[in-house]
């Protein structure tokens, strides 16, 4: 398994977090401890869960953390939609964020499928041993 820093989905989720920090800096000060904080945490959580899962010793744990990352991504999307409806993010900004989020979602799905397939293949092919020779 590659390092998490080599995973394209991790790199894209870091980029999303950076864009999120820039965008939320323009939200009203009254949202500093509300929508700003929660949106930033959700965005950061995506890459953190990918990294944490890749660092786990069992493939099943990585799969679980990818599910958590996907949940954080959907939370992030919801918060962005809310920010748009409140007038804190423009339709264009929302479109950019949701497009990035969709790409990350697709990558998470692809990585999960790849890991699940690899796990199934390893489970089906136990160590190959030669049968004992007959002595008669």
Structure notes:
The protein is mainly α and 136 residues long. It has one domain (4-122): Up-down Bundle (de novo design (two linked rop proteins)), CATH 1.20.1440. It is 75% helix and 0% strand. The protein contains 4 helices and no strands. The radius of gyration is 20 Å and the shape is elongated. The termini are far apart. The mean pLDDT is 92.
Which descriptors apply to this entry?
mainly alpha; de novo design (two linked rop proteins); 136 residues; 75% helix; 0% strand
SSE arrangement:
Blueprint (H helix, E strand, L loop, with lengths): L7 H17 L7 H24 L3 H27 L5 H34 L12
Helix pairs in contact: 1-2, 1-4, 2-3, 3-4
Entry summary:
It contains 4 helices and no strands. The chain is mostly helical.
Strand-pairing-aware structural class: mainly alpha
Number of domains: 1
What is the typical, i.e. mean, pLDDT?
92
**Low-pLDDT regions:** none
Compute the gyration radius: what is it?
20 Å
SS strand fraction = under 5%
What fold name goes in the CATH topology slot?
de novo design (two linked rop proteins)
Assign an overall shape.
elongated
Task: Please bin the fraction of helical residues.
Answer: over 70%
User: Please, how many helices?
Assistant: 4
CATH H level: which superfamily?
23S rRNA-intervening sequence
Order of helices and strands: HHHH
CATH architectural label: Up-down Bundle
User: What is the C-level CATH assignment?
Assistant: Mainly Alpha
Instruction: Report how far the terminal alpha carbons are from each other.
Output: 47 Å
Largest sheet composition: none
The strand count comes to: 0
């Amino acid at each position: 398994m590659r390092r998490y820093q080599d995973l394209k989905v991790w790199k894209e989720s870091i980029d999303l977090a950076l864009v999120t920090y820039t965008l939320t800096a323009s939200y009203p000060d009254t949202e500093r401890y509300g929508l700003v904080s929660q949106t930033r945490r959700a965005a950061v959580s995506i890459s953190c869960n990918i990294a944490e899962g890749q660092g786990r010793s069992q493939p099943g744990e990585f799969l679980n953390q990818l599910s958590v990352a996907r949940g954080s991504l959907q939370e992030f999307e919801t918060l962005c939609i809310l920010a748009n409806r409140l007038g804190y993010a423009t339709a264009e900004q929302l479109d950019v964020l949701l497009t990035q989020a969709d790409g990350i979602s697709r990558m998470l799905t692809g990585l999960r499928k790849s890991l699940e397939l690899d796990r199934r293949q390893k489970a089906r092919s136990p160590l190959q041993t030669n049968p004992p020779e007959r002595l008669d």
